[in-house]
Amino acid sequence: MIAVLAGGIGAAKFLRGLTNAELDEEIVVVVNTGDDWWHYGLRICPDLDTVTYTLADMVNPATGWGVRDESFMARATLELLGDDPWFTLGDRDLGLHMYRTQQLYSGESLTAITSQIARRLNLPASLLPMTDDEVATKVLVQINAEDGGDQIIELDFQEYFVRYHHQPRVLRVRYDGIEAARPTNAVREALSNARRIIIAPSNPILSIGPIIALSGIREQLAERAINGDVVAISPIIGGEAVKGPLAAMLDSLMTQHDARTVAGLYSDVASEFVIDTVDEILTDSIESMGFGVRVTQTLMQDLASATDLARFVVANA
Ligand code: FO1
Ligand code: CA
């Protein structure tokens, strides 16, 4: 069995390649839930949604999130009523959030609901939310007002990401509820039984950070890494993030933003680090941090390149 630590879009593309590679090996995905939030009374789990829709071949290819061939009638009603629906929930997508929320209210765990959804949609992998407890990523940002007065405020992750288009400078990220939250038994078991653990090319602070911050997980990964069983894929190529605010965030929080910066965040939890061919020059520097470094083309432009990357990562060095 192979376990993959995953965030949203980048991880979903990688997982599509990994499942397409037909490795004849079970794939268990541990998904970040720090982006999850309550909105219009519904429990929205963006990274679980994105991985689910991608693996079900239902995802909107133009956005990488949400459902393809979507309609937005509910959103139109909200606008008619004078609401500002800055967080878009399409009609088909709404059905999934309604189902999940209803099941949560009836007492089911997020783990059980997620696996039920995965079964109904015939997903080629098992999905495990990192925890059944509520953890909420909060982002402290600096907003520059037009009159010159700067404002420092803490935003819910989706407010920062969607409402403010991840434009404000990030001063700090914290995971609200992380001390009380527990990783599920299913997650603990997956990480101890996996033949190999892969850290997907996701944002190390926003997506992988919450998973690693859960009680006991850093220690568990460190133990696997000592035996050479954990490989991380750089989400940074040539100093830039393929998507999203990672490069600007790393710059603001760690003053530099190349693949080395990400490797530094994983130095105790991964034994191998996969970088892109354009970053080959960083090999010695990342090796000196204690990693085995492997170089390949990491940009996933289509299913074929995602499949190639997955095969490369899974193959033993
Ligand atoms: N991303 C957006 O940029 N705008 C949206 O309106 C939006 C709605 C949305 C609804 C459900 C869902 O599962 C995801 C949604 N996303 C939206 C994507 C998502 O919130 C972000 O891509 C991730 O959280 C960051 O990885
Ligand atoms: Ca995410």
TrEMBL record:
Keywords: Magnesium, Transferase. The keyword ATP-binding does not apply. Its EC number is 2.7.8.28. SUPFAM superfamilies: CofD-like. It holds the Pfam family CofD. One of its GO terms (molecular function) is LPPG:FO 2-phospho-L-lactate transferase activity. It is an enzyme of class 2 (transferase). HAMAP family: CofD. NCBIfam families: F420_cofD. This is 2-phospho-L-lactate transferase. It comes from Ferrimicrobium acidiphilum.
